[in-house]
């Protein structure tokens, strides 16, 4: 059963993503409300994939991605950004920092499930 | 002498006999040859006719197999067609399922609290994350002035949000009529005008409008609305209105309760002499 870390400050989006992830190989969802909370969860739980928002309080998604990629213990975990920032330059920036995929909101659940399945299969 | 003549005659007779025998043998050999040839011919004919029978059988078998293959191909095409139909239905069901999940989550969140500011935050979250609105305002009818006043904004300064009289402009008309407004072309980039939203959704409890959500700009990746967006608008129109209204009443009653409680506490206190 894969563990998916959902880093999102919006409870609505966390619940929506958690709902969608129930249809991904019976994935277990770990929720984090910001980057700092996500780092704590990464230290305590085995995580197979990260779904991460960009605009969050305390620590934003881009900072989290760069910290995860810089840590040998987590650097290979696939990261999918799920964000309202839909401009091409935002996508390029996130990919350059180390995100594997970029999904602008509002998300199409099927698209998200497909992406998650692809990256879980690769890892 | 006579004996010699008789021997000579007999020898001639033998020679004649041998010659006749030789000719007869030759004739027999010829006949034999002919018969062998005939047998060979007959054997060949027989073998040929056997092949023809076999070929005919094979041809019949091939015909049957081809007919069977055609029937299998037809069945395969039929199953493939059914499969496509099922796949398309499955996708529709999946989409419907996802849409229902979105609506469920939105509805669940809206009714998860009785805190007025929390409900407003959830309405804002839904508008951003599920609808894809970038600039918008939630306006409620002020009980004292009966004007529409912004209680939450996103992407615009609260000061820039309009104060609208019921019946005035798009926002006022939507409040008065209770009918949603959608601009004809959502992709046209307009200058921000607080009185001219591209979408205006009334917040209704049955037929009673308590306010509106005025959307001025969508996220760059959102080019238009899908069916689920309209469902979300309907949900917001009803559920958000109920959640906002009940939380507002609850917050007011809580405040009143605190005031009354303080008043009662004051009354209970013994007067100082």
Task: Provide the descriptors you would attach to this structure in a database record.
heterodimer; A: 123 residues; alpha/beta; Rossmann fold; five-stranded parallel β-sheet; 5 helices; 5 strands; globular; B: 273 residues; alpha+beta; Beta-Lactamase; 2 domains; six-stranded antiparallel β-sheet; 14% strand
Please render the helix and strand layout as text.
The complex is a heterodimer of chains A (123) and B (273).
Chain A: E1 3-7, H1 11-21, E2 28-32, H2 35-44, E3 49-52, H3 61-70, E4 79-83, H4 88-97, E5 101-104, H5 109-122
Parallel strand pairs in A: 1-2, 1-3, 3-4, 4-5
Helix pairs in contact in A: 2-3
Chain B: H1 2-110, H2 116-131, E1 133-141, E2 147-154, E3 164-165, H3 169-177, E4 181-182, E5 199-205, E6 208-218, H4 227-268
Antiparallel strand pairs in B: 1-2, 1-6, 2-3, 4-5, 5-6
Q: In order across it, which strands form the biggest sheet of chain A?
A: 2-1-3-4-5
Strand content of chain B: 5-15%
What's the number of domains of chain B? 2
- Give me the count of strands of chain B: 6
The low-pLDDT segments of chain B are none
Q: Low-confidence parts of chain A lasting 5 or more residues at pLDDT below 50?
A: none
- The assigned CATH architecture of chain A is 3-Layer(aba) Sandwich
Radius of gyration of chain B: 53 Å
CATH topology of chain A: Rossmann fold
What topology, given as strand order, has the largest sheet of chain B?
A: 3-2-1-6-5-4
